[in-house]
Each structure stands twice: as C-alpha cells, then as structure tokens.
TrEMBL record:
It comes from Rhizocola hellebori. GO terms for biological process: glycoside metabolic process. InterPro entries: GlcNAc_PI_deacetylase-related, LmbE-like_dom_sf. The keyword Zinc applies. The lineage of its organism: Bacteria, Bacillati, Actinomycetota, Actinomycetes, Micromonosporales. Keywords: Zinc. This is PIG-L domain-containing protein.
Amino acid sequence: MTHLSIAELGTILSIWAHPDDETYLAGGIMAAAVAAGQRVVCVSATAGEHGTDDPVTWPPQRLGQVRRWETAAAMAVLGVTEHHFLDYADGALSEVDQAEAIARIRAIIDEVAPDTILTFGPDGTTFHPDHQAISQWTGAAWELAGRPGRLLHASMTDDHLAKWGSLYEQWQVFMTDERPVGVPREKMAIAITLSGADLDRKITALAAMSTQTSSAMAAMGTAYWELNSDECFVSAD
C-alpha cells in the first residue's frame, strides 16, 4: 500500500495513556506536522505518577509534577502547543467509568475535528492495561462521533521486532505473556524512519523526559537513536 504523507494526515489528534507514549511512538510525526503548519492536539490520560521503580525517591505527587514539567519541555521541542491531561490515575484506567471517559474523548474529537487520530492498538504495544484502555476508549469515541477522519494504531514492523525484540525481553517491556505481532512495512498506513535533524529533535524531546528515558539512553548510547527512529501505524479498519 502507499504510505500516507505528513500532509495527508491533516489535523492530528494524538491520544495516549502516559506522557512519553506520544513522543516515543509519534514524536517525529507530530513535529513534522507542526512544522508544515498543521494543527496537532495531544492528550495524555495520566501524568504517569507511578512510572518508577523507586517510589521512595519518587512518590506519586513528586513524580507526577516532574513528569508534567518534562512533558511541557518535550512538547516545546516538538512544537506542539496544544497538550492536555485528562488527570486520571496512573495504572488505574481499567477502574475508570468507561462511559465517562469515552464521552470526554468524544468531546475532544468533536472539538478538534481531526483528519487523523493516532493512538495505541488493542495490544497497547506492550500489553499495558492503561494503553489498552486508551485504545478501547478512543475507538469507541471515534465510532460514536461517526468515524471522522481516520483512526491509526501504533504498530511495530516485523523487521523492528526481529532486531530489537531480545532487548525488549531483557528490559521486560511486555506486561503479559503475549507478544505483539510485527507488521510488514508495506502494510503500514504510516511508516517513517527519522534521520538527521528530525531524529535529533525527537531524541531531544525524549531526553527532556529524563525520569523515563535517562537509564536507557545511558545504557544504549547512540543505538538509542536507531531504536527510536521508526514511527509506524496501521489503519484501525
């Protein structure tokens, strides 16, 4: 299939569970769209206040505030001026009133009138329950809104998983015994590989989220650039 160009994406609504999801999976796309004069609206369901292995140093109130500051810095690097938190509790989206959450997202869709919605697929990429909840809510809201524009799900190519899958296993990225199925690049709706200044901008935005990225960046060195150079999405249809 022919991959969509940045221009064809039009107005973008980017909906995710935690701050850094959007930068890892769509930072380059969002930055390129903004640079081309397109509207980009980004939504984070939570502040990611439980995203640490050291809750003594980083209790939820402290980490949540720091991650909000980190997100503001990352969005500034990417050029995204419209970012919103839904202020749900990190790690507890499965406990949220689904009808209320879907209604909130539907209201955002109605206001933004996006040509393209970017979010997680049903597997949440890593099978994180929060990621999967956002996928479900967004899909339901899109249906209720009359399927405006196109809904695209983040996905990994088969060659990406072949190269980096063992590293993801080492890092225990996947939260169940299930594993994502790699999609051939030619079947993606969007498949871009960032390089040069475009990739540097994305990595700079990720570096701004240091509570989440500093360990991986230090461990991987320049390989971190290559790991995060691809941004790929499949059609929800």
